[in-house]
Design a protein that fits this description.
This protein is α+β, with helices and mostly antiparallel strands. Among the domains are: 89 residues, no CATH class; 65 residues, no CATH class. Helix content is 24%, strand content 6%. It is built from six helices and four strands. The N and C termini lie far apart (42 Å).
Length: 221
């Protein structure tokens, strides 16, 4: 039977530790949370505060939206989240420490509600997310599945489909990143229609892939 349609469901990102870090006891066979992990918050006044991972026994509308507002997701944000700061509060020039999530979160532009240093360190327990936990136990889950690039959602989606984001590291290159998908099909002498979708109302668009190759769609990176 010929395959006529391929549907790929890609959900918005949340960290493994947040959703499934407590699925099993952390150890050699499962790289999850121990419950003692922490980040050091380097405050503007020069003082420091230890922020440990935590769970909220309640599961209400506010809890399920943690963190609110969202963490930074641009390349510079994720670089700080992964590499963290040195003890004196300057950028860490060594290897990744996974110690910069709180610092980066608290350096985001002012919002309402205000940022809470504990938000990026929150996690759910299996009983709070029973559906995804049951699926993970029944079918398996990867505890070492990393993003292709430390940047926004769309470049990683294109990596998943084509193995490249055409050099772009932000969602601003979305239209230009269509080139990599289109060219991948062209190299195989194939044509196809495409339908990128978004759950928000009115965000469905469609068109033919070759249209992405219009010279006007090629801009400066």
């Amino acid at each position: 039977m010929d395959i006529k349609h391929v549907i790929v469901l890609m959900l918005e990102n949340r960290s493994f530790d947040c959703m499934l870090g407590m699925l099993y006891p952390s150890g050699d066979k499962f790289d999850g949370l121990k419950g003692t992990e922490f980040n050091t918050w380097h405050k503007p006044d020069g003082s420091q505060q230890t922020i440990q991972v935590w769970k909220d026994p309640a599961l209400d509308a506010k809890t399920v939206c943690i963190p609110d507002p969202d963490p930074g997701e641009c390349f510079k944000d994720i670089h700080l989240q992964i590499h963290g700061l040195a003890a004196d509060g300057t950028p860490n020039t060594g290897g990744p420490t996974m110690g910069g999530f709180v610092d980066n979160y608290m350096r985001q532009p002012p919002t309402t509600p205000a940022t809470d240093p504990y938000s990026p360190m929150h996690y759910f327990t299996p009983d709070q997310v029973p559906v995804i936990s049951t699926l993970a136990r029944a079918f398996g889950v990867s505890d070492r599945w990393h993003a292709s690039a430390p940047c926004q959602t769309w470049p990683n989606r294109f990596f998943a489909h084509t193995g490249t984001a055409n050099g772009y590291s932000s969602a601003h290159g979305l239209l230009h990143a269509c080139l990599c998908f289109s060219r991948s099909l062209e190299w195989q002498s194939r044509t196809a229609s495409w339908l990128p979708g978004h759950i928000a109302p009115g965000r469905l668009t469609s068109g033919s892939l070759p249209s992405c190759l219009h010279p006007m769609s090629i801009g400066t990176r």
